[in-house]
Amino acid sequence: MISKTQQTTNEIKNFVLSSYFGDGLRITFGALVPSLILSQFGLLQIGITVSLGALCASIPDTPGPITHRRNAMLVTTLVVSIVSLLTGFANASVYLLGILILVFSFLFSMLYVYGNRIASIGTAALLVMTLGIGDIRSFSEILLYTLYIIAGGLWYSALSISLYEIMPYRLAQQSLGDCVIEVAHFMRIKAGFYKEGMDYDKNYKKLLECQVLVNEKQNAVRDLLFKSREIVRESTQQGRFLVIVFVDVMDLFEQIMSTFYSYQTLHKQFDEIGILKQFETVLLQLSDQLEEVGYALKADTKPQLSLRLPREIRDLKLEIEALERGEYGTNFKESGVQALKNIEVNVENIFHRIKKINGHFKDRKARKLTKSQTQSAYFISHEEYEFSLFRENLALKSEIFRHAIRVSVVMLIGFIIAQSYNFLHSNWILLTIMVIMKPAFSLTKERNYHRLIGTIIGAIVGMSILSWVEDGKALFAILLICMLGAYSFQRKNYVVSVLFMTPFILILYDFLGMGSRAIFIERVYDTIIGGSIAFIASHVFLPSWEHQKLKTVLVEMIEVNLAYYHQVSTYYFGQQYDKIPYKIIRKEVYVRSANLASAFQRMFSEPKSKQLSIKEIHKFSVLNHLMSSYVATLALYVMEHREEIPAIEGLKEIASNSEKLLNEAMMTLIKDENVAENDLKILPLKHVFKEDDDALLIAEQFIDLQKVAFDIYKISEKIKV
C-alpha cells in the first residue's frame, strides 16, 4: 500500500497529467496571447476583446470527438458575434436591453435539451451579452467590437484544432487514464468493506457516488474512442491499443462489481483470525497497481507490475486452505469458508486482468482488434439536434422549460436591481446569476455556495497579493498562475476555480488602472446579491425537486436490472452466449445505476421537507447495486465455463419467480396495479447438492438473487415519491 505522502504525490501527478490541466494550459495560452501581442502596439483594449472571443470559443471545447469540438467552437463564434452585435445596438435603450435579456436568457437556457456541449454555446452567448450590457458605442465601434470577437473565436479554434492534429491521441489517453484511475478508486472503496469496524452505510454511499464518476469517465472515453475516425476506422497502432485497453478495463470493472457479499456475516465469522484484513491489503495493492496503469496511460509510459502481488495472493490462498483443513478451529461455517474461496478466486481473476492490461503496453504492435471490438455503434449515444426536441420541451412539465423561464425572469430582476443602484460593474450581478443557476435546485445550491466561498477567499487573497507585491513582473507571474488555476479547475472543482479567478480579476483590473479596493468590495457584493436572487428563485419560482422525477429513475433501474438478469439467466437454460447484446445491456446497467446514484445525491442536498423516502431510496440503491453484482457473478461464470454449465432442476422456476418479483416491484412504483401479498414469495430449490459441487454455487447465486428481488419489491412498497 502507498503512504499518504506518495498518495499526495500521485494526486498532484494525476492532475498535472490530466485533461483538466491540459485544458487550462490551452485556454490560458489562447486567451492571453492576443492581449499580450496587441498590447505591444498600444492596442490592449482591442486585445482584451479578441481574448474575450477566444475565451467564448473555449467554453464548448470540452473533451470529445474533434469534429464535435470544431463544430461547436465555430458555431459559438458565429452565435456570440450575433449576440454581441444585437447587445451593442440594444444598449441605446434600457427597455430594449431588458427585452433582449429576457429573450436571450430563455432561448439560450433552453439549449440544455440538446446536452451539455450545446448548452455551453448558450453559456458563451450569455457571457458576451452580460459583459456587453451598458457598453454604449457608435455603430462603427459595435461592428469593430464584433469583428474582434470573431477574430478571437477563430484564433482559439485554430489553436485547439492544431494541437489536436499534432497530438490526436493525447486527449483519449488522458481520458482513458482518468477512467482507469477512477475504477481503481472504486476498487479501493470496495476494499474498505473488509476493514474491521467499517461503517457499511457510509461506505455504500461512497461506492455509489464513485460509480457515478466511473460512468462519467467511461462515457467520455467511449465518445472519444468510438466517435473518432482516427481511432476506430484507421488501423493505427495507438488507436488499436487504446480500444483494447478500454475493452479490458470495462471487463475488469465488471469483475470488481461481482465481488459483493454479506460483509457483516463475514466479519462476524472471521475477524478473530484476521483473514479479512489480508483481503483488504491485497485489494488495496491491486487498486494501486491499476492506478499505476492509469498514470502510465496519461504519461505515455509503461507500468511496472508488482512482484510482491502474486506472493500476497498465493499466501491468501494458502490461508484459506489452512482454514479448510481446520488449522484455525472448526467453528467456521462451510458457507462462510466457501465465500472466502469465491472472493479469492475473484481476486486472482482481477490480478490476471490487470496483468493482461499491462501486457498490452509491452507489445502494442502485435495487437489486433477483433470484429466485436470495432462494432462501436452499439455502445455510443447519438446526439439529436432536431427542432422538434426543442418544441416538445416547451411545456411546464419539462424541467428545462421551467429552468429557462426561471433564468430569464431572474436575469431581468437582476438587471433591474443593477440599473436601480450605482454599481461600478452592475453586469457582475447578471454574471453571477448566469453561472449559478442550474436546472436542479441542488446544483444551484452547490454552485451558489462554491461561488460565494471562492469569491470571498479569493478576494482576500487577491487584496493581500496587491498589498504585498509591488513588482510588476511578479504580479504578472501571479496573474498567469491564477489564470491557469481558474481554467484548469473549472470542470474539476468550481470552488477552487473561483478562488483562482477572483485574484486574477483583481490583479487584471489593477494592471488596467481601474482600482482594486472598490473592485474587491464590488465583487463580493455582486456575488452575494446575484447568488441570493438565484437561490431564492430556485426555491420558490417553478422549482425542480428531485422527488418529482425520481419515480422514472427508480423504475428504469429495476427495468434494466430485470433485462440484465433475464439476459444472463437464459445462458443457463440453453441460449448461447453472445458478447454484443450482453455488453449493451451491461452498459445500460452502469448508466442507470449512475443515474440513480446521482438522483439520490441531488435529493440529499435538497431541503429536508423535499427528501421523500430518503432512507428507503438509499436501501433501494444498495439492493439494486447488489442485484447487478450478483448477476455479474453469474455472467462471469458463463464466460469462463461456456461448455460445462450444469443443468439444475428447478432453477428456471426460481429465475422466473425472481423476474416476477422485479416486475411487481415496477408495478408497485408505477401504481398501475395492486399486488396481492400472498401471490409473492421466495421459492425453495428442490434439489440436494454435494458441498463440492459447482452446481451448488450457481444455485446459491440464483437463490440469493431471488431474495434480493423480493427485498427490492418490499422496499418499493415503502417508497412514496
TrEMBL record:
<feature type="transmembrane region" description="Helical">
    <location>
        <begin position="494"/>
        <end position="512"/>
    </location>
</feature>
<feature type="transmembrane region" description="Helical">
    <location>
        <begin position="474"/>
        <end position="489"/>
    </location>
</feature>
<feature type="transmembrane region" description="Helical">
    <location>
        <begin position="142"/>
        <end position="164"/>
    </location>
</feature>
<feature type="transmembrane region" description="Helical">
    <location>
        <begin position="37"/>
        <end position="59"/>
    </location>
</feature>
<keyword id="KW-0812">Transmembrane</keyword>
<dbReference type="InterPro" id="IPR032692">
    <property type="entry name" value="YccS_N"/>
</dbReference>
<feature type="domain" description="Integral membrane protein YccS N-terminal">
    <location>
        <begin position="74"/>
        <end position="350"/>
    </location>
</feature>
<comment type="similarity">
    <text>Belongs to the YccS/YhfK family.</text>
</comment>
<keyword id="KW-1133">Transmembrane helix</keyword>
<keyword id="KW-1003">Cell membrane</keyword>
<feature type="transmembrane region" description="Helical">
    <location>
        <begin position="95"/>
        <end position="113"/>
    </location>
</feature>
<protein>
    <submittedName>
        <fullName>FUSC family membrane protein</fullName>
    </submittedName>
</protein>
<feature type="domain" description="Integral membrane bound transporter">
    <location>
        <begin position="414"/>
        <end position="536"/>
    </location>
</feature>
<feature type="transmembrane region" description="Helical">
    <location>
        <begin position="71"/>
        <end position="89"/>
    </location>
</feature>
<keyword id="KW-0472">Membrane</keyword>
<dbReference type="Pfam" id="PF12805">
    <property type="entry name" value="FUSC-like"/>
</dbReference>
<feature type="transmembrane region" description="Helical">
    <location>
        <begin position="448"/>
        <end position="468"/>
    </location>
</feature>
<dbReference type="InterPro" id="IPR049453">
    <property type="entry name" value="Memb_transporter_dom"/>
</dbReference>
<dbReference type="Pfam" id="PF13515">
    <property type="entry name" value="FUSC_2"/>
</dbReference>
